[in-house]
Specification:
Layout lengths: L13 E5 L5 E5 L19 H28 L3 E7 L5 H11 L5 E7 L4 H7 L5 E5 L8 H11 L6 E5 L16 E7 L6 H4 L1 H6 E7 L11 H11 L4 E4 L8 H21 L6
Parallel strand pairs: 3-6, 3-7, 4-5, 4-6, 7-8, 8-9
Antiparallel strand pairs: 1-2, 1-5
């Protein structure tokens, strides 16, 4: 059992490229959680200091792998965004719309779910390159899973890469994947106090999208109070209200992506990392 989040590791992560005619090509890469785990119930009797030490080792190992991922991505001028949310907030719908409306850009997607290829099939239907990472009992992606997915996906230089994490606003906050930025998607159906209930995720975010604003007349949600809560946790975070279904506010998302992509490119070239 994972010391940081309690997710099991009895099944390996399976990385799959969705295909036509129901054909699947799974790629198993050993244990899906590359961090150390203790099994059984003995860990219950360990001193708290031992548990903290184990957690630090797990996150330290992940951070090393994330740093390697980040270097690999930067060398290829690939800008990656770690998309996080609770289930049902609209991440996949946002990616579908983004791919269709930014079709002039090279875009690729890595989908993370505990089971099924459903989201990857939705992305594949747009014509975008995609691989699915099924984590089994795992409740988040980690840097090793991303490395394996990158090996399978092999995105072209200059790609805009979206990593749709497992629906969960707790554990993904702890695990750096090597991404440019974390994007948190919440929706107006989830409650105004979401940023206060999940402060670590909001604190780690570069952008908070408040989706489904077309439902504001029908739900008890205070947009300004939600913004205030988010800024109290992360004063520098940008808040972007939008409705993926109607398109209201989506253009601001594209502007944010353009700024991030441009900044990443300039930073890479300034360091002398120009690539063919």
């Amino acid at each position: 059992m994972c010391a940081t989040c309690g997710c099991g590791d009895n099944t390996a992560a399976v990385i799959t490229i969705p295909h036509e005619h129901g054909q699947e090509i799974p790629h198993e890469h050993g244990a899906g959680h590359s961090h150390d785990h203790g099994h059984g119930t003995d860990h219950v009797h360990l001193p708290v200091t031992e548990t903290v030490t184990l957690e630090q080792k797990i996150l330290a190992k992940n951070d090393i792998l994330a740093s390697r991922n980040r270097e690999w991505l930067e060398q290829r001028n690939i800008v990656a965004f770690n998309m996080t949310s609770s289930p049902g907030s609209g991440k996949t719908a946002l990616l579908e719309r983004t791919i269709r409306e930014l079709g002039e850009l090279p875009i690729a997607v890595i989908e993370g779910d505990q089971e099924t290829l459903l989201d990857a099939e939705r992305i594949r239907a747009t014509g975008c390159p995609v691989v699915q990472v099924n984590t089994g009992a795992g409740c988040h992606l980690d840097a090793e899973m991303l490395r394996q997915a990158l090996d399978t996906l092999n995105p072209a230089a200059g790609t805009l890469l979206f990593v749709e994490n497992v629906g969960n606003l707790v554990c993904p906050a702890l695990f750096d994947l090597g991404e440019r930025s974390k994007v948190v998607v919440i929706s107006v159906t989830e409650g105004t106090d979401k940023p206060l209930k999940y402060p670590h995720m909001i604190a780690a975010a570069g952008l908070v999208i408040v989706n489904k604003t077309d439902l504001l007349p029908y739900v008890d949600f205070d947009l300004e109070k939600c913004r205030e809560y988010a800024l109290s946790v992360n004063p520098g975070v940008e808040i972007l209200p939008m409705s993926v279904s109607t398109g209201d506010g989506v253009s601001r998302w594209y502007e944010w992506l353009a700024r991030e992509r441009g900044t990443a490119t300039v930073t890479s070239l300034d360091r002398g990392d120009r690539r063919d």
